[in-house]
Amino acid sequence: MGYPFRHSHVASGDWRLAAAVAVVVVQVSHLLWTLLPPMQGAAQHWVANLFIDASVATAFALVLTVAIRYRGSRLGVAWALLAVGLLFNLFAEVSWSVQELAFQEDVPFPSVSDIGYVGAYAPTLLGLLLMPQAPFSALSRTKLGLDALIVTCALAILSWFLIVQSILNSTGISLQAEVLSVFYPFADLAMVFAAFVLVARAGRTRFALAFGLLAAGYFATAFSDSVYA
Questions:
Q1: What pLDDT score does 11 carry?
Q2: Ramachandran assignment for 203, one of left (phi > 0), alpha (psi -120 to 50 degrees), beta (any other)
Q3: What pLDDT was estimated at residue 64?
Q4: Residue 84 near residue 123 (C-beta atoms within 8 A)
């Protein structure tokens, strides 16, 4: 796969500051719109959905840019897999918005959007686990694995009692909806595990901050999924 941190020699400007500013502007605008909406009704709903779609589209564009920059290396493959996962997410969010806003109907569960939501997990999980890590001794790696396992098991117990058990005891939902409702919490736990390992093994490499922010994003996604469930 080549040296994991080798990147393409294609000339490019330092776009990171502009990208960071764009991300902050989109997210702060979304937060303010949610907390202090300047309008009500359908317009507020439209803008809220468009903010979500724009956020995922921006994330996809940035991750794809990094994947291209580091193509030909293990790091490039990892970022490319994350880009594929975000592409699935983008399909899910846009299709949800089309059903809800353009067709003016309640989105059923499951729906075509779940194809994107479910499809995003595998490439994202692989991408997080394939990220290069700082050198560790065998003892450190064992400790890291145990720490990650303990955190994941604790979250799994909470998820079972707060979410999964209620879903299994519910009535009046289809088998497909029940399977997906159970799948999402456990898939999110796998994402949390991968994100935790990513942060813990980053060490003090120059990618530590990027990996930390990446993991925080997936932690937030898993948390919001659990709250929604």
A1: 42
A2: left
A3: 95
A4: yes
Q: Is 67 exposed, middle or buried (0-12, 13-18, 19+ CB in 10 A)?
A: buried
Q: Give the integer Cα–Cα distance in Å for 56 and 63.
A: 10
| The pLDDT of residue 7 | 45
Entry pTM: 0.77
The residues of the chain scoring below 50 in pLDDT are 1-12
pLDDT at 76: 92
Tell me which long-range contacts 44-48 makes (C-beta under 8 A, separation of at least 24): 45/100, 45/101, 46/101
Q: How far apart are CA 84 and CA 55, in angstroms?
A: 16
Q: HSE-up of 95 (CA within 13 Å, CB side)? A: 15
With DSSP H G I counted as helix, E B as strand and the rest as coil, what are the percentages for the chain, rounded to 5?
75, 0, 25
Q: Which of 155, 125, 147 is nearest to 218 (CA)?
A: 125
Q: Residue 25: exposed, middle, or buried by beta-carbon count in 10 A (0-12, 13-18, 19+)?
A: exposed
Bond prior to 110 in cis (omega within 30° of 0) = yes
Nearest to 214 by CA among 1, 42, 59, 40: 59
